[in-house]
Amino acid sequence: MRVCVIGTGYVGLVTGVCLAHIGHQVICVDNNKEKIALMQSGESPIYEPGLEEIMRSTMVAGKLNFTKNINNAIANSQILFIAVGTPALPTGDSDIRYVEAVARSIGLAISGEYKVIVNKSTVPIGSGDWVRQIINSEIVKRQLDNIPQFDVVSNPEFLREGSAIHDTFNPDRIVIGGSSDQAISLMKELYQPIVDRKIPAIDFLGQLSPQTVPLVMTDLNSAETIKYAANSFLATKISFINEVANICDKVGADITQVAQGIGLDSRIGNKFLQSGIGWGGSCFPKDVSALIHTAADYGYDAQLLKSAVKVNTNQRVLVIDKLQQVLKILKGKTIGLLGLTFKPNTNDLRDAPTIDLIEELTRLGAKVKAYDPLIQSIYHHPILSTIDLENNAIDLAKDCDALVLVTDWQEFKSWNYTQLAKIMNNPLIIDGRNHLDIDTLAAAGFYYIGIGRRAPENSLVAKRVQRDAKKTITKVA
Ligand code: NAD
Ligand code: UGA
After folding, report:
1. Which residue segment(s) compose the domain that 165 sits in?
2. Which residues contact 252 (CB under 8 A, 6 or more apart)?
3. Are residues 275 and 298 in the same domain?
4. Is the CB of 163 under 6 A from ligand 2?
5. Structural domain tally of the chain?
């Protein structure tokens, strides 16, 4: 099938590349000239494991092309994906001006055969009808003899950054919202190889599940609501486990054991129970906020979602309390951050918890250093110009009063912490993702603090605590 994807960010580029890999003829459009030139030369503007390899192979096979000429791309395609950004406005609502601009472009250029317009961007509930109206209003202005025929469907995206290719070929479900049989039938045909798990081999993809992918067919509004509800549920689940972790800290329980104990209940499930410094990224914060605002527009106060946001806001700076408990005054202290991105395997810094953390540490007078495997330039984000960006573990740890792990990069598990403890002013580590092994850090000479985490009964740390307690009791006696 001939597919046009408008907007080549995390969602658009991955969608275009994956559809080309399963045999469709794909043209990707972006209004950013530099991005188009980069992609035409075979380079991906974003970091996503495996993306560049498949992008290049599909380009060589003649299945994938890039252009900034939106008119030709629209005219020659059967299925048009809208995959532009919908960032949050300062009010918390979604900024849908990019979707509107694309809808107008479609209305101005659409011609020839029947087309399906697919809302892939996460859009406020009701946007399907709104997009149809904008396209129609542009068509009417053209006073054509032959009115182009089209339908709008909603096809929300559920991929995660850092595993976007894997998620696109292994979705838990595909949701298609719309009422036109013709549009739905074309969408089913488009996704059939993914539904049937007939994906041309890729090394890193591993074994695909033998079951076909469930197709969820809904009306437009329900499909749009599914997207917001899914992200809001996942964000709330993380805020829930973070709240329990904070209670664990008070009562002396261990959140990793608690998460295991509740996660084995199939009604709860073991995913998204990783406690830490909270959720960030380009979607959870804006999508939860957008759902709260939509509810308010209709006179409903979404109290649970507001609480999930509040827990998350506090969680982002909780490590500061933990630093203050040990170091007392942070003014004049040097704090080294392990990781900057909102999650591992991405170079995306949009709404990363680190940004709040850097702001607060700087406000309190601490000097901040940071190391991230994929962030090696201060131009990634304006806040990076306020810190020392290091490019290895030794430079990061040197003269630090504490380290704080903010992103659970695999690389951090294999660092030589014995060496790092020796070059720090004070070997303290706050593990903001409960990512490191407590005994390894204790053996390396670190004072380790996690989030709701307690050393296991028979661990080196627990034995030390018991030994010190005995000494104190003997002294008192
Ligand atoms: P992005 O900001 O990474 O990319 C958007 C792209 O659209 C940019 O390359 C931009 O240049 C281009 N663009 C903007 N206006 C354009 C126009 N008029 N014509 C052509 N190109 C234009 O965004 P993203 O992260 O890919 O997100 C896109 C949408 O998908 C958002 O609604 C988001 O909520 C949703 N989503 C994102 C993810 C994710 O993991 N990032 C996952 C699921 C859903
Ligand atoms: C999330 C959803 O998982 C995707 O299904 C959705 O398509 C996407 O948002 C979107 O709409 O953009 P993503 O933001 O890429 O994907 O990453 P996640 O793996 O969901 O992580 C989000 C945040 O939650 C990260 O900051 C991560 O560190 C945090 N997190 C995740 C936790 O703190 N604990 C967990 O157990 C899981």
Report:
1. 2-218
2. 454
3. yes
4. no
5. 3
Element at 150 (helix H, strand E): strand 150-154
How many whole angstroms separate alpha carbon 178 and alpha carbon 75? 22
CATH at residue 299: 1.10.1040.10
For 301-357, how does the pLDDT look when each residue is reduced to its tens digit (9 = 90+)? 999 999 999 999 999 999 999 999 999 999 999 999 999 999 999 999 999 999 999
User: What percent of the chain is modeled with pLDDT above 70?
Assistant: 96
CB of 276 sitting under 6 A from ligand 2: yes
Confirm or reject: Cβ of 231 under 6 Å from ligand 2: yes
Quick check: helix, strand or coil at residue 379?
helix
Q: Distance (Å, rounded) from C-alpha 466 to C-alpha 351?
A: 41
CA separation for the pair 342, 408 (Å, rounded):
9
462 shares a domain with 444: yes
pLDDT of the residue at 469: 61
Residue nearest to atom 16 of ligand 2 (CA): 160
Which of 299, 314, 329 marks a domain boundary? Answer: 314
Atom 17 of ligand 2, residue of closest alpha carbon: 160
For the residues 428-434, what does the mean pLDDT come to? 97
64: domain CATH number is 3.40.50.720
Which candidate, 171, 251, 191, places its Cα nearest to that of 453? 251
Provide the 8-state DSSP code for 215: E
Residue 349 · residue 341 · CB < 8 Å = yes
Q: Which residues have CB under 8 Å from 393's CB, separation 6+?
A: 371, 415, 416, 420
Query: Ligand 1 centre from 161 Cα, in Å?
Result: 13
Decide whether any atom of ligand 1 lies within 6 Å of the 98 Cβ. Answer: yes
User: Are residues 386 and 289 part of one domain?
Assistant: no
Q: Is 78 in the pocket of ligand 1 (CB under 6 A)?
A: no
Q: Which of 6, 10, 39, 72 has most ligand 1 atoms within 8 Å of its beta carbon, as the pocket-test mutant? A: 10
The residue-averaged pLDDT of 257-276 equals 98
Residue 39: pLDDT over 70: yes
Q: For the segment 285-302, what is each residue's pLDDT rounded down to a tens digit?
A: 999 999 999 999 999 999
Q: What is the atom index within ligand 2 of the atom nearest the CA of 242?
A: 33
Residue 442: alpha-carbon gap to chain centroid:
32
For the CA of 16, the nearest ligand: 1
Phi, psi dihedrals of residue 116, rounded to the nearest 5°: -105, 125
Same structural domain, 277 and 173: no
Tell me if 291 CB under 6 Å of ligand 1: no
Q: What pLDDT does residue 476 have?
A: 42
* Residue of 277, 343, 347, 409 best suited for mutating to test ligand 2, as the one with most atoms within 8 Å of CB: 343
> Which positions are catalytic?
283
